[in-house]
Design brief:
By secondary structure, this protein is of the alpha+beta class. It contains 6 helices and 6 strands. The longest helix is centred in the N-terminal third of the chain and has 30 residues.
Length: 292
């Protein structure tokens, strides 16, 4: 085979300028041209498929492999790692794309929101009306009788009065008697710091305890005919009534003054400093069950 008949990349050179080094240079150029041709062919195929978004390249020019493993870290298998190009459809922008996105992903219609808001307002109005018409009459408004009250009681009978106590009912207030006088012994209200602002429940048991002792008293003194402080005057009178305190958690033992009070009427609120009036009182000698 003649020397001129050999391809350009396979010509054999002699020593010197045409030695093995020149043959390697020619083979490298041929491989570079083939690589460029192959790259153009791949880019043309990707363009025909519509994939303009290619996978991001490594600063050295290699493709990034998903999962955090790079081709140069795979050892001798790096040359055989082949990944499919990231082919993505063409993304459209503008008013047409926005309308298409709204059609593909419909939101909550305005009519549904308006209907939901109307339903919430209607239910709230019915609940507020039922509470208003079920409450008893007070000094601000009279709700006895009336067509709306009768209709509300017929359709929405809540019976809220079952959970509340009328404010006009009498209330017994206890006082402990000592050498220095009388001291207020009621544990209420619940919001006091001693009651942990309502967390403890012991003060709620004092009401039945006082009521049980008041039911054993037969003689009471009228506070309207007493000048001065009614509990202090009654505490100094002789003849204390002996009663038994059967409460499992007694809070009143020994000499106690029980005073029945009533709220100040609204029309006489300007004539009194307090908000309750002493009606009658009695001094008792309470014997607790634990002291027997």
């Amino acid at each position: 085979m003649a020397r001129a008949d050999l391809p350009a990349g396979r010509r054999r050179r002699g020593p010197g300028r045409g030695g093995p080094g020149a043959r390697l240079v020619l083979d490298g150029r041929l491989r570079g041209r083939l690589r460029e041709r192959r790259g153009r062919r791949q880019r043309r195929r990707l363009h025909e498929r519509g994939g303009r978004h290619q996978r991001p390249r490594h600063p050295r020019g290699r493709h990034l492999v998903p999962g955090g493993r790079q081709p140069e870290r795979l050892g001798h298998r790096a040359g055989r790692v082949r990944r499919r190009p990231d082919v993505r459809p063409h993304v459209r922008h503008g008013p047409a794309a926005t309308e298409q996105h709204a059609a593909d992903h419909p939101g909550v219609p305005v009519r549904v929101l308006v209907s939901a808001a109307g339903g919430v307002l209607l239910v709230g109005a019915l609940l507020a009306g039922s509470v208003f018409f079920s409450l008893p009459s007070n000094v601000l408004s009279t709700r006895d009788g009336g067509d709306l009250r009768a209709l509300s009681a017929r359709l929405l009978p809540q019976s809220w009065a079952f959970f509340t106590k009328p404010p006009s009912d009498p209330e017994f207030v206890p006082y402990l008697v000592s050498d220095g006088g009388v001291a207020h012994a009621a544990l209420l209200p619940n919001s006091r710091a001693e009651n942990l602002y309502g967390l403890t429940r012991r003060q709620r048991a004092q009401g039945p305890e006082v009521a049980a002792m008041a039911n054993q008293v037969r003689r009471w003194r009228d506070c309207e005919g007493i000048e001065g402080d009614c509990p202090a005057v009654v505490a100094g009178s002789p003849g204390a009534v002996s009663v038994k305190n059967t409460s499992p958690v007694p809070t009143l033992c020994g000499r106690v003054v029980l005073v029945e009070t009533r709220p100040v009427p609204w029309k006489f609120r300007d004539r009194y400093e307090g908000w309750r009036l002493d009606k009658r009182a009695a001094v008792v000698e309470a014997t607790c069950s634990g002291n027997d």
